[in-house]
Amino acid sequence: MKILITGGAGFIGSHLAERLLNDGHQVHVIDNLSTGRLENIESFRDHPKFAYTIGTILNKELMDKLISKSEQVYHLAAAVGVKYIIENPLLSLKTNIVGTDNVLELANKYKAKVLITSTSEIYGKSEKVPFAENDDRLLGSTQISRWGYSCSKAIDEFMALAFYREKKLPVVIVRCFNTVGPRQTGQYGMVLPKFIKAALLDQPIIIYGNGKQSRCFADVSDVVEAFIKLMNDKKCEGEVFNVGTTESISIEELAKKVKTMCKSKSKIEFMSYEDAFEEGFEDMMHRMPALNKVRDFIGYEPKLKLDDIIKRMIEYYEN
Questions:
Q1: pLDDT in tens, the chain (319 residues)
Q2: CA 196, CA 52: separation in Å to the nearest integer?
Q3: Separation between Cα atoms, residue 207 and residue 270, nearest integer Å
């Protein structure tokens, strides 16, 4: 099958590309390298069924050319990472909204099936945990940048579902919750690689906020497996799915665990959200996905536990 991955040189996109190549598919990726890296695709760049384009999903002419040759489109390209979104608010909104509109419109033109990656940011600061796909959303002020990101991804979902209902375009929407693993960078605020790199260098492990906020970390291999199953199951079309894990840990406990597993001499320090990001920054105390739906549809069960994930990442960064 001929498959296009937008954002394919990114952390998740590169793992997805590698898996699809191993499954025998012809894979083309497009990435503007704003947060993706050529090193992520280095190990399979010379694969006879692989091709890549450095470019933006905002270039409609380029996207027309790529999607016209594709049977499936995994749309992963988006502004990612709290730090990147706050530093690039306008580009983040345009990439997420205009870019997704381009993908959906052209996929409809050429009848390519689309998987749209969304985010747990959709749920905003709701305190109803775990989050189910049909739960209400609770967002903060328009003056706080991260809620603009949440809204832009919600618009992506609304557009995808509108294309499904009006145009019969086969689409699947996946909301990812803290996906981690080898190749992930801490550069844009991703907490686990940031902690591991600091611990390996015996540098301070810096926690934003009070560290009591909790998250669930899923391994990229489990997430990629879910993407492929959801894309290729007809009954998943027109549906929204959470993908992640329910194994929860506080950020402070995560820092302690990483320090121990790295045999590190690092000190654990705390920094206010305002100093780390922007004035008035808001965070969610707890974020956990309800996985009943994705389990019912494709039998999804994450295989890797957090200790195994951290061990795998430590080995990657040590090398």
A1: 999 999 999 999 999 999 999 999 999 999 999 889 999 999 999 999 999 999 999 999 999 999 999 999 999 998 776 777 788 888 889 999 999 999 999 999 999 999 999 999 999 998 899 999 999 999 988 888 888 889 999 999 999 999 999 999 999 999 999 999 999 987 766 899 999 999 999 999 999 989 999 999 999 999 999 999 999 999 999 999 999 999 999 999 999 999 999 999 999 999 987 777 767 677 788 999 999 999 999 999 999 999 999 999 999 999 8
A2: 30
A3: 5
- The question of whether 164 is a catalytic residue gets the answer no
Q: Are 16 and 76 in contact (CB under 8 A)?
A: yes
Which residue shows structure tokens 């998943």? 236
CATH number at residue 151: 3.40.50.720
Residue 65: helix, strand or coil by DSSP? helix
The residue type of 193 is P
Out of 52, 84, 123, 149, which one is annotated catalytic? 149
Domain assignment present for 48: yes
Q: How many domains does the chain have?
A: 1
Query: How would you classify residue 128: left for phi > 0, otherwise alpha for psi between -120 and 50, otherwise beta?
Result: beta
Residue 46 belongs to what domain range? 2-179+219-246+288-303
Q: With respect to residue 209, please indicate whether it lies within any of the assigned structural domains.
A: no
CA dist 38 and 30 (Å) reads 11
Write the burial class of residue 166 (CB in 10 Å: 0-12 exposed, 13-18 middle, 19+ buried). Answer: exposed
Identify each DSSP E strand in the chain by its residue range.
2-6, 26-31, 50-54, 72-75, 113-119, 171-176, 179-180, 205-208, 214-216, 218-219, 239-243, 248-250, 268-271
DSSP 243-254: ES---EEEHHHH
